[in-house]
Amino acid sequence: MQTLEPLIVILGTGGTIAGTARSSCDGVGYTAAQLRVDDLLAAVPALAGRRLEAHQVAQLDSKDMDIATWQRLAIAVDEQLARPEVAGVVVTHGTDTLEETAYFLHRVLAPNKPVVLTAAMRPATALVPDGPQNLFDAVQVAAKPGAAGVVVAFAGRVHDATQVRKAHSYRVDAFESADGALVARVEEGAVRLLGRWPAGEALGLARIAAPAGSWPRVDIVMNHAGADGRIVRALLAAGVDGIVAAGTGNGTLGVDLEHALREAESRGVRIVRSTRCDAGPVMDLPGLLPSAGVLSPVKTRIELILALLAR
Ligand code: ASP
After folding, report:
1. From CA 16, how far away is CA 210, in angstroms rounded?
2. Strands (E), 21-148
3. Of ligand 1's atoms, which has the minimum distance to the CA of residue 174?
4. Residue nearest to atom 8 of ligand 1 (CA)
5. Which residues form ligand 1's pocket by a CB distance below 6 Å?
6. Which DSSP string do the residues of 103-125 spell out, in sequence order?
7. Residues noted as catalytic
8. Structural domain harbouring 86
């Protein structure tokens, strides 16, 4: 009896990987989210004949990612993973908020099958597009026996959802893992494991079921030279449930900004300190506002929203 090769499902959400420009030399003035996920697959002849299924979940520039799309995507990924014949899921996405979607899916689903997000820095019409290679690599990762959890496959590297961040605005290898901790590399289609597949405890879809419009409001405020409490006071006036303070260094805050944040905290707003540094933890010290550990400000924001949704 012939054993079927593993089925991989590709979910499309848009991004530059699905973007088009008028000229093949235009790598910046393109429009994201123009091609369908089937078109992306058709551009990778090496995937022809593979056991794949493709579905379009959204079609947007990921700078415009929103809660409703996250909800739809999490449900779609969960449904696909629940099918016994599905070995893994690939999500095509934009690079701008890729790390946020990856972290969101990781916290909500913590899947024991691989969910591999991928993207591109160049539109599909570029002279040398990077999307087809990234999509090919992502499928290899999703089909790798033993692979599990939410990862990002990009430019030959496989990043953990908790570590990954977009670190460059233009370079084709735009993503880095904090402290360099890669999960794997993809070389000529072979996945070479370097670390561990991400694992965690799933919060579950029930946590994110509330209508998008009723989700807690969490904003990010940065410390910088001359920062004061003005933005925090404006947020308080507008209504806010949580504030992530992207502090300097070890999450340090200017005196006026900290004063305003403590005022907000005393009025019931949840405050968490992260750092505007590219990597490294924010250490908790007695008497300081709560720390986000190693999470970047945007991931801290997701963590805080998910925590507030449990109230
Ligand atoms: N603005 C685009 C997006 O995030 C950038 C990209 O895909 O690289 O969808």
Report:
1. 30
2. 52-60, 86-92, 114-118
3. 8
4. 95
5. 15-16, 32, 61-63, 94-96, 119, 121
6. HHHHHHH--SSEEEEE--SS-TT
7. 16, 95
8. 7-193
Whether the pLDDT of residue 1 is over 60: the answer is: no
Mean pLDDT of 219-238: 98
Give the Å distance between the CA of 53 and the centre of ligand 1: 23
**5 C-alpha vs ligand 1 centroid, how far in Å?**
32
> pLDDT of 108-123, one tens digit each?
999 999 999 999 999 9
The whole-number pLDDT of residue 32 equals 95
Supply the residue whose CA is at minimum distance from atom 3 of ligand 1.
94
Question: Any residues with CB less than 8 A from the CB of 155 and at least 6 apart, and which?
Answer: 130, 134, 172, 173, 174, 175
Tell how far the Cα of 275 is from the centroid of ligand 1, in angstroms.
Answer: 24
Task: Give how many domains the chain has, as a whole number.
Answer: 2
- 134 is a domain residue: yes
Residue 45's CB is within 10 A of a number of other CB atoms, namely: 10
Ligand 1 center from residue 291 Cα (angstroms): 30
Question: Which pLDDT score is estimated for 28?
Answer: 86
Is 3's pLDDT higher than 80? no
What percentage of the chain has pLDDT greater than the value 70?
A: 99
Looking at the fold, whether 299 and 181 belong to one and the same domain comes out as no
Q: 274 and 144, same structural domain?
A: no
Residue-wise pLDDT for 235-277, tens only, equals 999 999 999 999 999 999 999 999 999 999 999 999 999 999 9
Mutational pocket test of ligand 1: of 63, 73, 117, 166, the residue with most ligand atoms within 8 Å of the beta carbon: 63
Closest protein CA for atom 7 of ligand 1: 94
Q: Which long-range contacts (CB under 8 A, 24 or more apart) does 193-197 make?
A: 195/160, 197/114, 197/146, 197/147, 197/148, 197/149, 197/151
